[in-house]
Design a protein that fits this description.
Layout: H1 19-24, E1 37-39, E2 42-43, H2 99-121, E3 125-132, E4 139-148, E5 152-155, H3 157-160, E6 163-169, E7 175-183, E8 190-194, E9 203-204, E10 215-220, E11 229-245, E12 252-261, E13 273-275, E14 280-288, E15 296-300, H4 301-312, E16 320-321, E17 326-328, H5 331-337, E18 345-347, H6 362-366, E19 373-377, E20 380-381, H7 388-393, E21 400-407, E22 410-417, E23 419-420
Parallel strand pairs: 1-11, 9-14
Antiparallel strand pairs: 1-14, 2-4, 3-4, 3-6, 4-5, 5-8, 6-7, 7-8, 10-11, 10-13, 11-12, 12-15, 13-14, 14-15, 16-23, 17-18, 18-19, 19-20, 19-21, 21-22
Length: 426
């Protein structure tokens, strides 16, 4: 349920794996690797006895089954996102001032930025307490933030999945009953609704142009008892991939395209906001390495925007889906496989047991085949910096897109009507 993602060690992407597998989860026929990261929610129940040996991973799987352009978890993935970050720098101190004055100015600037950011966001950060729906009645605690004044809250999927009861504690100490509006089929995200109006809200930022080294501020409820805790750091890395699991190693999932930060994120922080220096939300805190210091991860806010819009429109949470596994084409791969191009994505699966094109998928209906190389979407090039997943995620299920495809020596235009990314099948 709300067990944290426990992760002793990260796992670097295997260049031999297809992109949808690497970035969005292991194929259905593969068991997930042992969990190496811990979700930042906090279980308050006593430790459970060790489970029988089985696939490890997070309590709330975030996979989405292979989709042609994936972004997080599962064998199904759908449109993805890569960078998704935004540059928010603070004013540098004058280089003409004496050294001591220079240092003081930097400290004042950074402190002011953090204070202002917290003032803007803190009133909208909430604590989410859960009770499991199973016979154990286990409880857990996570975080979330209000993105619409009529009671709409964004949090992590693993915070609320499997809960029979949700109690949302507002910053002003009010306690409201919460209900899960929807679970994202693509990422470790969920939307919770409370019956209230005129609530404080966060300011939603952008994550497309984030830069390593810029200020990052995390707010949450570490360990489930230190409410509204603020930690600061920087953006340490972008586009990170980890394998996250819960403390009991009962399940595991692969999370990709994450923001890495050294702002302290602890169990209980899951679902809380990661802010830039302007107090805008740039990410959703989701996992931490318990065997390291200063290594935490957040889902970029741009990934969440489509489902936030769907919720406000009263729609089901849906992600677009093509239905293929693919691997990015590099100069080395092009040379090794004698490919006609050195950019794009190659439709391919790393396992003979897993089809590169999902049966009955939009890709299959459009006639895409294993070995096809997709080089552009609607005329926009597909490459390492702007991959297929990003292009697909910009669209909605039901939209028709045109893929530029190289098949042997032929160049084809293939129209694909996007489907709905299926929920992860356990």
């Amino acid at each position: 349920m709300t067990d944290p993602y426990t992760s002793p060690a990260s796992r670097d992407p295997d260049a031999s794996e297809p992109m949808e597998v690497r970035r969005f989860g292991p194929p259905p026929s593969h068991s997930a690797p042992p969990p190496s990261w811990t979700s930042a929610s906090w279980p308050t129940r006593p430790p459970a006895p060790p489970p029988a040996p089985r696939r490890s991973g997070v309590g709330a799987t975030v996979v989405a089954v292979a989709v042609v352009a994936g972004i997080v978890s599962g064998g199904l993935s759908a449109a993805a996102v890569s960078g998704l970050l935004r540059d928010e720098t603070t004013s540098p101190a004058s280089t003409q001032a004496p050294l001591g004055t220079n240092v003081n100015n930097v400290t004042i600037d950074e402190s002011s930025a953090v204070i202002n950011a917290v003032d803007r966001a803190m009133p909208a950060v909430v604590k989410i307490a859960t009770t499991a729906e199973d016979l154990t009645g286990a409880s857990g605690v996570g975080s979330g933030f209000i993105f619409d004044a009529n009671g709409w809250i964004l949090t992590n999927k693993h915070v609320v999945e499997g809960a029979s009861q949700l109690t949302v504690v507002l910053n002003d100490s009010r306690q409201l009953e919460g209900t899960v509006y929807g679970i994202d089929t693509l990422t470790d995200l969920a939307i919770v609704k409370v019956d209230a109006t005129d609530l404080p809200t966060v300011t939603i930022g952008d994550s497309e142009d984030l830069k390593q080294g810029q200020l990052a501020v995390a707010i949450g409820n570490p360990l489930g008892q230190f409410e509204n805790t603020v930690t600061t750091g920087i953006i340490s890395g972008l586009g990170r991939q980890i394998v996250a699991g819960n403390g009991q190693a009962a399940s595991a999932e692969r999370l990709s395209n994450l923001i890495q930060t050294d702002a302290a994120i602890n169990p209980g922080n899951s679902g809380g906001p990661l802010l830039d220096s302007a107090g805008q939300v740039i990410g959703i805190n989701t996992a931490v390495n318990q065997e390291a210091q200063g290594i935490g991860f957040a889902i970029p806010i741009d990934v969440a925007k489509p489902i936030m819009d769907q919720a406000l429109a009263g729609e089901d949470l849906q992600r677009p889906w093509i239905g293929v596994y693919f691997v990015p084409v590099t100069k080395q791969l092009a040379e090794d496989e004698n490919l006609p191009v050195d950019e794009g994505v190659l439709i391919d699966s790393s396992s003979a047991d897993v089809p590169a094109v999902f049966p009955d998928s939009p890709a299959a209906a459009a006639g895409l085949e294993a070995g096809d190389i997709i080089t552009a979407v609607n005329g926009d090039a597909v490459n390492a910096g702007d991959d297929l997943a990003e292009h697909v995620l910009q669209h909605a299920p039901g939209d028709t897109i045109t893929l530029s495809v190289r098949r042997g020596g032929d160049e084809l235009d293939v129209e694909v009507t996007l489907g709905v990314l299926p929920a992860q099948q356990n």
